[in-house]
């Protein structure tokens, strides 16, 4: 059979988690918490199952959940969304992003992605028949060079995929970034696929800037969110996509034939949890900032160059003073020899630049973070 994705193998997250297991290493590679979600949320799921919320939900998501999500967008972002026409519950942001891309682009179209970029974007673009055009973020700061983005736009460009807070670098968009994006997409009549799954994980007093807060951006954007990140339940694979009614209608046409619906009891549980604790997501920034600080402070006597992550639960460490090895090789070596697994970031580039970074996930117990830092300090 002719492969539709000849260059795609098993993702780095799957490979590194498997290697960590094989080597019994501390797994700071794949991004997931090693601690439990709030007890009330887990109880709400058990209750939803026992109460009989076990058959198909409506295709766009349980109305009770969409109402809560509209409330969340009002509370945390100050925006009004129509739960019926603008919010779609999806089985994970990965599916929402896939459907948004599938619904929007096709043969001959180009989609701009910013490298290093999350690994699910390009396969979706290719399967839609379009081509990904890669623009690298600036070295070290990982900021967007909007002039470079403008230079990559051609008459074929249909969409740009953006991600803030950014996986794997931890960079976050400023208000000025959103304004630059807005100007470009208006000028060139582009759609935006905005991956905001780490929206609540921003540090040092930063605010998350959502495309939904900029009316002229919002009218051409799909914004994606994930309960996996917000509620520490990556295995529940549920999230939602917010887009204007016309874009939502197109997204749903694809979603109804990719997954049809998201898992019903999970939707009921999140709806019940948010109804009683709508401010819970606002507690995350402080919680994760303490973990980031613990990890970074514990590394202060190491030979890594550490620039504290601005958002997400990932910390990049620059190992230039420790090794010249390529990141994927060092990552494997340290998993096998030191018992500590991370993620190389070169794999998220079309043409990786000369740099020496590994990504460490700090959504881990304080004990594991301290232990990992101790090992890293000895190198
Ligand atoms: N985008 C980014 C940047 C992510 O890190 C993740 C987490 N895996 C996703 C999308 C997908 O989220 P989900 O697990 O809800 O599909
Ligand atoms: N988003 C997670 C990470 O960046 C991994 C998700 C996955 O394994 N696909 O580590």
From TrEMBL:
The protein's superkingdom reads Bacteria
Q: Please verify whether the record's keywords include Transport.
A: no
| This protein's record includes keyword Manganese | no
The residues covered by the Aminotransferase class I/classII large domain are 25-376
List the GO molecular function terms. Answer: transaminase activity
Q: What does the record give as cofactor?
A: pyridoxal 5'-phosphate
Coiled-coil boundaries: none
Q: Which UniProt keywords apply?
A: Aminotransferase, Pyridoxal phosphate, Transferase
What Pfam families does the annotation carry?
A: Aminotran_1_2
Q: Which SUPFAM superfamilies match?
A: PLP-dependent transferases (SSF53383)
PANTHER family reported in the protein's UniProt record: FI04487P
Q: What is this protein called?
A: Aminotransferase class I/II-fold pyridoxal phosphate-dependent enzyme
What is the originating organism of this protein?
A: Candidatus Seongchinamella marina
């Amino acid at each position: 059979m002719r492969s539709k994705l000849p260059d795609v193998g098993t993702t780095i997250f799957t490979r590194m988690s498997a290697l960590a297991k094989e080597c019994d290493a501390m797994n700071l590679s794949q991004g997931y918490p090693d601690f439990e979600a709030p007890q009330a949320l887990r109880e709400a799921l058990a209750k939803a199952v026992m109460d009989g919320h076990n058959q198909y939900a409506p295709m766009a998501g349980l109305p009770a959940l969409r109402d809560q999500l509209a409330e969340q967008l009002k509370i945390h972002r100050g925006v009004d969304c129509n739960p019926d026409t603008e919010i779609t519950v999806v089985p994970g942001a990965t599916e929402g992003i896939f459907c948004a891309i599938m619904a929007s682009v096709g043969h001959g179209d180009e989609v701009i992605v910013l490298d290093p970029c999350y690994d699910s974007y390009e396969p979706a673009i290719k399967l839609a028949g379009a081509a990904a055009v890669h623009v690298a973020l600036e070295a070290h700061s990982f900021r967007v060079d909007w002039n470079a983005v403008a230079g990559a736009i051609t008459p074929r460009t249909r969409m740009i995929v953006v991600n803030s807070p950014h996986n794997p670098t931890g960079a976050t968009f400023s208000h000025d970034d959103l304004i630059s994006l807005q100007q470009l997409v208006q000028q060139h009549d582009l759609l935006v696929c905005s991956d905001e799954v780490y929206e609540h994980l921003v540090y040092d007093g930063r605010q998350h800037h959502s495309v939904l807060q900029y009316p002229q951006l919002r009218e051409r954007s799909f914004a994606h969110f994930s309960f996996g990140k917000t509620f520490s339940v990556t295995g529940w694979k549920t999230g939602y996509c917010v887009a204007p009614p016309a874009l939502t209608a197109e997204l749903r046409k694809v979603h109804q034939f990719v997954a049809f619906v998201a898992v019903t009891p999970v939707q009921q549980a999140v709806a019940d949890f948010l109804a009683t604790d709508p401010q819970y997501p606002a507690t995350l920034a402080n919680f994760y900032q303490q973990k980031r600080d613990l990890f970074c402070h514990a590394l202060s006597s190491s030979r890594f160059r550490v620039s504290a992550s601005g958002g997400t639960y990932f910390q990049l460490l620059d190992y230039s003073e420790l090794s010249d090895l390529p990141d994927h090789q060092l990552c494997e070596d340290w998993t096998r020899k030191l018992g500590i697994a991370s993620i190389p970031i070169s794999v998220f580039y079309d043409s990786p630049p000369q740099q020496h970074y590994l990504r460490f996930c700090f959504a881990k117990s304080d004990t594991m973070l301290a232990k990992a830092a101790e090992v890293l300090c000895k190198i």
